[in-house]
Design a protein that fits this description.
The structure is a homotrimer.
Chain A: H1 3-9, H2 12-26, H3 36-46, E1 52-57, E2 61-62, E3 65-66, E4 70-79, E5 85-88, E6 103-108, H4 109-112, E7 116-117, E8 139-140, H5 143-148, E9 153-163, E10 166-174, E11 181-187, H6 194-211, E12 219-225, H7 229-237, E13 245-251, E14 260-263, H8 271-281, E15 287-290, H9 299-302, E16 311-315, H10 337-356, E17 359-362, H11 387-398, E18 400-404, H12 405-412, H13 416-428, E19 432-435
Parallel strand pairs in A: 7-8, 11-12, 11-13, 13-16, 14-15
Antiparallel strand pairs in A: 1-10, 2-3, 4-5, 4-9, 6-9, 10-12, 14-16, 17-18, 17-19
Chain lengths: ~425, ~425, ~425
């Protein structure tokens, strides 16, 4: 089965539910850039695809960085003098600042206050905060709850460990007929945040599952990594990746109901950029295109000038642009099966373009070949040629060995699939041959 | 006389009437892609210009095609049981499907009905239909007339022949000082349709007549060919044409009252494309520009990838966009002398650009030469320089041997003629010399 | 002090007044393309900066031109029969046509009339007229005054001399660490016209004064020349200027209250063009960009094809577009200290871009360097990165040795200064090194 055939065969609704269910199972786990939460999350992915899990010891030099100590946490709370827990990690793992060092103390509100993070503009929501590389501790809570706290003493407890351990990431390679790779990367370091980025994890897992059933030209490499340090660790361990990676996509925030947003790679006009734009233009739905910037997710690392992998970022609502971003409102009801499924299908359509984009030589380049005697032309003159027929003429006219099917589809303003089918038909009539 | 001088000397109104008259004489003739109708039509053109007529035998292999049998027709009708001819080829040659095989039969309406072509949305008009390469027969008639036909028996007669003969086309070469050619092609295979394409035939004939009186740099080659198969036949017999043809125009639908439409060549930015766009932008009238597509007239053949001649298509209302297209309403009152004349003049202006577009070297390139002492400058400072003076400065400033007069006209946003006159003046003062 | 530091240290209001005062002192002087008026004007400039004054004898061949005779004038008037001077050069030096030959005569109005120039549409204003290369004489006056003249006899007197002498221009070179030059040119040949071009003279003088206090990479060459013939004379004496001049600006009409207008060099995308456009886009004020044309001031000469110096023209309201242009209304109240100062600062900002635009190599190009441990990153995740931080990331991402800071600023849509500061910071942390 080719990727094109796969696309035609899928049950979108069922896939949407399947991805949503995977995200739902992973949602309660407390993840960070290291620790058991990442391991448990990758175990869930391994139930579906044969992920290879790598552990890189704390203290390992990775490019300009060092793998940090491993963080794990058992409990964390703030209790009032009556022993009532007014903030409790069991209730939501967002309540504790990621990488908080352990603490056990009694202190007045004045002393505690600088440790408490809230969102005054969204007083019902818990913010998401981390401090990976500067030792501190703290709690996050709804601003309303903070306003109810009395100026009295509190017991605070964070039962965490920050000790030598390792950074964990997952990797899966689906070999194609070529050693050239498509890189798909998602970050797996955020705790109970659904869109950012259990949505990315669910879509990536589903892509791997589906592509595993197809025959494909490219090799597809999936990375499930902690943001920044995970991508950097993988790059440090794969310094020759630029020799193999031809196209890349970072998947993030792909489950909300917003339009799809594609952020171009640093190169700006790489094949992945053109394929993504083409698919979005012909999808019939709204979409946004953004130029590359070094703000965002792990495309920052893959597009650093030393590697310059042609990696775009595929999203729906971009990080920072929706009010639920990095708050407790980014929960399982914020992401929708239909949106996950739409993201999945669109990425597959992009991969289909990459798979099938080739160059051909018209074997009857002098004048138009007589399509009629080959059964490829309307018999009775005077009618307007339909779309499929127009595609035959475009492919014949532009197949000079230099222009690829995507070039042709763009110039003809036809969907790639229509043009690719025309090329197949012409190949079948020996009017076309593939060129290198 | 140069083309520029010719342009200044013409009587537009008289030329419009002359072209309309030629089209009117050719209108009644039943043309097809082969046969006596084409021969009689080319005879009319030969009364004005010394056309060379070529006959290519049926069965000749031409590129991927074969010259078809020759089709001729004497009469064709449908008669009711009372012998009344309710459809008659004598009334309009559109009534019979082009290339209909002979038939003589009596049949009921049910059997006849699939052979009858109408336009339900334009019930008073006869459609134009052909079937060159699939043997069939049929009639075309107003939908209103079909609705009046009773469910009874009819006598049908098509007295045609489909026999080995030849394909006929006309060709005229006006040699210039250079062997490089401008190709002008019009199709001559449509029966009583005025805009499509007796208008093209009339304008092409008039162009040939007028250019024959001028001294020109380029050699102008005129082709009067049946659409598709005629162009393919000419290309097959002139496989080295790409060595000589520098610019080309297909002329079609140039007599209606719509704005001029120019469809770019496959190359998109060839000199003919730039010249046409420039002339239209400075003409003061509305116009349309279209990118190349492999749908249309014989530019499809000339722009096939093996030849890739820089051939645009010059039209007024493009085929398929006006309601009269391929119906009996495309008659002699649909085309207007003024429109034919405007098309003629515009094509001549385009040719004038091609003729006079050259590169020059400023012989006083350091600073501006002192125009005043040469009588080329306003004497009293402080007034705004007029257009002709600005052109002198632009030509001096940009004539570095690389930029042509059209380049200069485009950058200066001046009409080509103004720039060309400035170059003439500067040549006269030895401030400029032509470069290769 | 660098140019960037200079910019941060200036007192705009004081500089505006200082420039306005210099223009005011020069305003009453009767200037022309030669003569004592130019000399006295250059003396005023020399009070501020060490101008080198060059005298080129009348009759000297300069490129395609010849230095004209020197013109000086003592008095000029028209008196009625009662001896009342109804037009008097003492009142305004615009009253006499520049380069008028001497005359002493009595004549009737009919004979005198062709010598009298007025502006019927602006009847209160004196027009500015010259006739450098065609011998004549004449007077300019308000149209209202002409209408009051009786049809009687008048005494006319122009006490001028047109004799072998010399053309005078001023030049100042501020050597930089490189021999590559920035050329700043203003014309000094207009009599009592403030915006055109005492404004240019005042801004150029102030620029020279200020740049003289800085350390700069480029050598800055200031030219104070009569329009056209002065620029041509300088070019004739410096035929190798194109070897050294990398960027140029003509300063004219820089004192009115209109928006800044930048007219691009003949090259169109030269560094000076890109720097000027960048500064204007980030200035927060309205501005106009114009493509090059060979109409204007001395950019016509510097941009002639033999030299093709990358010279733009920096203006506020362009010549010919404001009603005061070349009339007695272009007086000292038409130009404003705030406008002069805004022009000065904007030119300095453009020079700052030229000075600091360099290419760098990211020394940690594989992934992002860890900014946090260098104190260059916000400690607590989840907040939006501020502008200065974004600039660090852009400079790191794009510093591959090929893209300059201006390239980066344009792609990042950040002000050049923000990007340049980021580069300084990264240099300080040894994350960047300059490349050739």
């Amino acid at each position: 089965m080719t990727v094109a055939e796969l696309l035609a065969s899928l049950d979108r609704a069922a896939l949407g539910e399947r991805m949503h269910a995977l995200a739902g199972r992973a949602f309660p786990i407390c993840r960070s850039i290291t620790g058991d939460g990442v391991r448990r999350t990758l175990e869930l992915v391994r139930e579906r695809v044969p992920l290879v899990v790598t552990e890189v010891p704390s203290g390992t030099q990775v490019l300009d960085w060092v793998v940090p100590p491993e963080w794990n946490i058992r409990e964390a709370w703030i209790a009032d003098r009556a022993g009532r827990r007014i903030v409790d990690f069991q209730e939501s793992n967002l309540h504790v600042v990621g990488y908080s060092e352990p603490v056990r103390a009694r202190m007045g509100l004045a002393e505690l206050r600088p440790r408490l993070h809230t969102l005054p503009g969204q007083p019902d929501l818990i913010p998401y905060r981390t401090s990976y590389y500067e030792r501190t501790w703290g709690f996050c809570l709804p601003h309303h709850r903070l306003e109810q706290m009395q100026d009295t003493e509190y017991d605070v407890c964070i039962d965490s460990t920050l000790e030598p351990g390792s950074l964990t990431y997952g990797e899966l390679l689906l070999p194609g007929t070529s050693a050239e790779e498509v890189l798909i990367s998602c970050h797996v370091c955020h705790p109970s945040l659904a869109n950012d980025n259990l949505s990315g994890l669910a879509v990536a897992t589903q892509l791997a599952e589906l592509l595993g059933r197809t025959e494909h030209r490219y090799s597809y490499r999936f990375l499930f990594v902690p943001a920044t340090i995970g991508a950097i660790t993988w790059l440090a361990r794969n310094p020759d990746c630029a020799d193999r990676v031809r196209h890349g996509l970072v998947l993030t925030c792909v489950g909300d109901s917003g339009d799809i947003t594609y952020k171009r790679s640093r190169r700006g006009t790489a094949p992945i950029d053109r394929a993504a734009e083409h698919v979005l233009r012909h999808n019939g739905a709204g979409f946004q295109l953004r130029d590359f910037s070094p703000i965002g997710y792990d495309e920052r690392q893959y597009c650093s000038p030393g590697f310059d992998l042609a990696t775009g970022c595929f999203m729906r609502s971009p990080h920072g642009t929706f009010p639920e971003y990095h708050t407790s409102a980014d929960n399982m009801s914020f992401i929708r099966p239909a949106a996950l499924s739409d993201s999945l299908m669109t990425v597959l359509e992009i991969f289909r373009v990459l798979e099938d984009d080739r160059r051909f030589q018209n074997l009857q380049p002098y004048g138009e070949p007589q399509l009629g005697r080959r059964g490829l032309y309307r018999a009775l003159g005077g009618e307007t040629a339909p779309g499929a027929q127009i595609a035959l003429l475009w492919v014949l006219n532009l197949s000079d060995g230099h222009q690829s099917l995507l070039d042709i589809a763009e110039r003809a303003r036809l969907p790639f699939g229509t043009v690719a089918r025309a090329a197949d038909i012409l190949m079948g009539h020996e009017l076309l041959r593939e060129t290198a």
